[in-house]
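Hey,
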Amino acid sequence: MQPNLEFIIDLSKQAGVILKEGYGKEHQVQYKGPIDLVTEIDHKSEELLISRILSAFPDHSVVAEESGLTQGSLEHRWYIDPVDGTSNYSRGLPLFCVSIAYAYQGKMKLAAVYDPLRDECFYAEKGKGAFLNGNPIHVADTSELMASMLVTGFPYDMDQENNNVDNFIAMVRKAHTVRRLGSAVLDQAYVAMGRLDGYWEAGVSSWDIAAGTLLTEEAGGLVTRINGEPDYMKPPYDILAANPVLHRKMLAELKGVP
């Protein structure tokens, strides 16, 4: 049995209540790495998401940021990020969201991204378009790099070879501006609705890109790996997303840059 779009929209909003109630309060912060942190709200939100998913679909598998893989059917797989933008959240910076995606037989079918502070719910169903609070959304038609507002992020381990510094330098010289918002999922949602023109990032995880890629594609965008390969849902994960014209121009600038 497969879920419907209404189920994951409602689920994202249930988790959003947890985030909103905890926002602005003092949190129990733990570090998974030097700059990779988690709070008790991440755990509380993830516990709700997994429990509701497995209660309705007990044979499904779930990939979650904090608890990893919950074994189940390979045909039915969920990708959840209970708080995307945890660093922002822990500091009271209002850029974070809940992200849920469902894949059937390896293909993304449903996605919901909820920003509880703005009450903005982005969602998409494969082949049926992308929406924000009931209204259709589309990628921007910006065609020139110098007119584009791009967004990116950086890996937790800046000592790794592919740390995005060279890519950032290359793109900041070509684009109108490059932002770093601290939420990979919102980066993609904003590209899908045209607030931003293009997004690229390396060193991401499956739960960072699962929902946003479906939003972008259903909004008319093109999503690939940074080198242009189409299979972006395989490790190591990296992503390039924009409208097809701008995507081609971004790809030409990023290609071959470590």
